[in-house]
Structures are given as C-alpha cells and as structure tokens.
Design goal:
This protein is an all-alpha fold. It has a domain at 2-13 and 95-281: Hypothetical protein af1432, CATH 1.10.3210. The protein contains 17 helices and no strands. It has helices spanning 2-9, 17-23, 30-42, 45-55, 69-76, 78-92, 101-123, 130-139, 142-150, 152-165, 169-177, 181-191, 196-204, 215-230, 239-248, 255-269, 273-281. α1 (2-9) crosses α12 (181-191) and α9 (142-150) packs across α10 (152-165).
Amino acid sequence: MESNLLKYINDLPVIPEVATKVINLAEDGLDISFKELENIIKIDPGLTTKILKIANSALYARQKEIESLQKAITLLGFKNIKSLVLLVIAAKFFQKEKHTEFYQLFWKHSIITSFMAKTLMIKCNRIEISELAFIAGLLHNIGRAVLFKSDPEKYIQAVEQSENNQSWIEEFEEKLFGTNHREIGAALFKKWNFPETFIDVALEHDSLNITSPHKTLIIFITIAGLITEKLGFGIYSPAKDELLNTLLLHTPFSKKDIEYYEKHFLENLKKDLLFQECQDLFGIKE
C-alpha cells in the first residue's frame, strides 16, 4: 500500500513553501504573527496582488482603497488572511487541468463544502474553528484530484462505476488504483508537513470510524460535503443517508435543518462576494 501512495504523490509539484509557513503560523501572540504573516506574503508579488484585490473587493470595501498588505491584514483579520492565502495557492495547484469537466466539478464541490462547513460551525457557536473548517473543507478531497491527475481515464472509470452502482467511490478507487483518495490525501499532507488536523480530515472524512482527536471538525466537514453532494456537486447515493443521519446525532442539527440548507444555501451563497471571488480564482464556469 505504501508503494501505491508514493507512486501517486511523488510526481506532484512541491507545494510552495509559503503555504506551509502560513498554515503553521501560531494564532497566539497575534502581534508577532501578523508581522510574520505580512513578511511571508510580501515575498510573493503575485500573492500580494491577489490578497489586495480581494481586500478591495466589494465584500471588504472601504471608502479609501487599501494599498498596503499591513492594512489588508488588519482589516480582514489574521485567520481570514490565512484562509485567503491558502485559497490562492490551492487555485494554482492542478492549474493546467482546471478547465476539464472533472476539475470544474471537483473545485465546485470543494469550495461549496468549505463555505458550508464554515457556516455550520458558526451556527453551532464554534467560531474559533470556523476558518479552520473552511480550509479543511476546501482540501478534504485533494486525494481525488491527485488520482485523476495520475490517470484521468482510469479515474473517470472509477467515478462512472461509483455512479452506476450507487456505491462509495473508495471501493472503485481501490480496485483500479490499489489505494483510495482518503489515504492519498493524508499521505500528501504528511509529505507537505501540514498539521495533523488536515491529515486526519483527509483520512477520516466520510467515515463513522473516527479515531482522530479532531472528531467534531471531521463530522462537520463530512456533513457539509454530503449536503453539497445532495445539491448536485458530487455523487450522492442512498448508501450515504445512513452516514448523514448517524453523524447528525453528534450535532445540534436535525433533518429539517439539512432540508433548509438543501433548499436555500446555494441560492444565498451565489450572492456572497467572497464566493464569487473564489469562483474567479479557480476558473469556475457557471
């Protein structure tokens, strides 16, 4: 199994050092962290430009244009800037394939899941980890993108078999690749020296057998991902109903709450200017 994992992740480009530095920045001692964050970002002119563009978008509009990175960080806040940096970097990954049908759906699912996960966390008064949920939700399925990149035709086969059999994609990934996207995602984050949280989310999402200390986060990201699939962005099968209903027991949410998100979340999200920025970043077409 280890050799299968290495085979798929060793050919990938190394994630920019800036991402690893940003994601590992401590959130205590914010005065120091703010300065560190500014110093990390300003090394990359392209990244700086993107962050300033977002800061000056209507979502964060101020009477005067924000021209300095320091001002942008102050206005948007430390956690928001961390999220935006990782969004920009994630958008550059798999850049060549971004207009394929697979990647369009992959990033749509990932982005909607990230906004959904953050919303669910805020609704439950877990604001302190809502930005973490946002980024972990964005990246939770990264292993699928890796497997597609390694052999697009074979991976589309796995997707089609999963759809035709109304069954979990992991089953067909295992048959065709000898591994699955959850194991690949966890191995990739280990290679990139990401915090344990991201490794655990990649490995244990869509599962009832959660052993991670970050169980609450994993449950909320799984629920967010399942609702996103029910909205038409991914493969939702009746087999997933049991998982969703069981995980809901660990949250304050009811089936009626989920029905509300199914009916209204996407409609409201499309009006969100940060969501519109994300679509633009990832080259997503309506």
